[in-house]
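During the practical work, I worked with a single protein chain and the tokens that describe its fold, as given directly below.
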Amino acid sequence: ARPAPSRPGAARLTLPSGLQTGDVTMDSAVLWSRASGEGRLHAVLHALDHEGRRLTSSSRGRGKGRGQDSEPIVLRGPWATERTDFTARISATDLPSDTQYEVELFFEDENGKRGEVGTGRFGTAPGHRSDGAQSFVWTADTAGQGYGINPDVGGMFGYEAMRAVEPDFFLHAGDTIYADGPIEESIEEPDGTIWRNLVTDEVAKVAETLREFRGRHSYNLRDENIRALYAEVPVIATWDDHETTNNWWPGEVLEDDRYSVVDVDTLAARGRRAWQEYQPIADVRSLKPGTGFEPERIYRKISRGPALDVFVLDMRTHKGENTDGREQRATSMLGEEQLQWLLKGLRRSQATWKVILADLPLGIVVPDGEGQESIANAEDGAPLGRELELARLLSGIKSQRTRNVVFLTGDVHYCAAHHYSPERAAFTDFDPFWEFVAGPINAGSFGPNEMDGTFGPEVDFQKAGPAMGSPRDGKGQFFGRVEIAPDGEEFTVELIDATGEVQYTRTLTPQPR
């Protein structure tokens, strides 16, 4: 519906949260922004040549963007209104593969007055005629343990370290906000140093209302480092617990005096709505039929060309209660529908590498009081509880002969590399695989945690900052970088701290089908 006409002489619309691109495939991209008031989102896409210049009639056919029309693509999106906190997105489809774009986003008000123009860039994934080479970064945990935007240290500078390595896209493995962690003007760090935060009304208490959840997301987008990365690097994100509250599961009733709303399902519905409003993820109404994405579904597959498919998991929506994890029957982490979707997608994938973005690690023990937040149950024997669902997944991957599956995750606030093998395991019906852990990017550090031996993990590397250490020096905050060589012949993983210093490197080579 069209909003009421704006008043004469009204100020032009601005972009208070910058812009984002996301879920970019070989032929599509989601373009996102937020307006300062009611307006209609517009996008203009300019194809670029291999030197990053806009294509013209004289530059057609040179480098990336080869053979593409030099005319810009003009797209008109939906109205941004108070109903969506003035956020809006456009799904750009039928784009050529392996093409770099400059994108201009702006809102027009009811009178057709154009607002502030934000400029960004993105590149579609390599096509089947390409060698498939690309790189990406991943991490987790933003603004946790009370560590928000501190201008004294340059804000959330770990995001600038990720931008500096010039990735083709960015995976956020969850805890994109900390809705349950109030951000105060100052906090005392473990060594007595005072950390000073930028503070807004919405982040000063735990989030309960939709307005407060939205305020958490808009708060992070005040950081110049985040906005710079998002303007240049497409985002693929999932959620975890802190988008709602710590270690939650459906049906939980909180026993926390900070909350007046104690029904977790109510909080999760508000948190999920705010998360989806602020993420550059597709709206099913603007996609082609049969794409398989639904607005109420966070898990999805992003095709990144012949060398890579990314499977984004949702390990929170279908999660069972945090018991001790020793039930003889299978308890849920993914849920049956998501489990079957994942196995089917892996079986059908023709990509050399299949990356599974998981918001929880597989073999790390994460206690939650007397229960377990983790899949692991802290016993090294045969699978029990949630481990039974993981065992089905791993044995299914083996039985359908899916090769070159790599798990990437975060959550535990340290970085690590784990190799899982049936030779060391109590459960043996699976093929060896790797799991790499990164984060936090701007939150307190802790760990490392104990490992559960059920699936035979071996710690190849792990590094943690000081217990509850702050992000001040960036030495206890981490992200991962993956470089995929031409034709997928190598998959190189680096674990890097927030200052940009590489801590670990491992190169994998593909196994034949």
Notes: The helical segments are 158-164, 210-220, 224-232, 264-278, 336-348, 386-399. The CA atoms of residues 101 and 273 lie 29 Å apart. The first strand starts at residue 19 and ends at 22. The chain is about 15% helix and 25% strand.
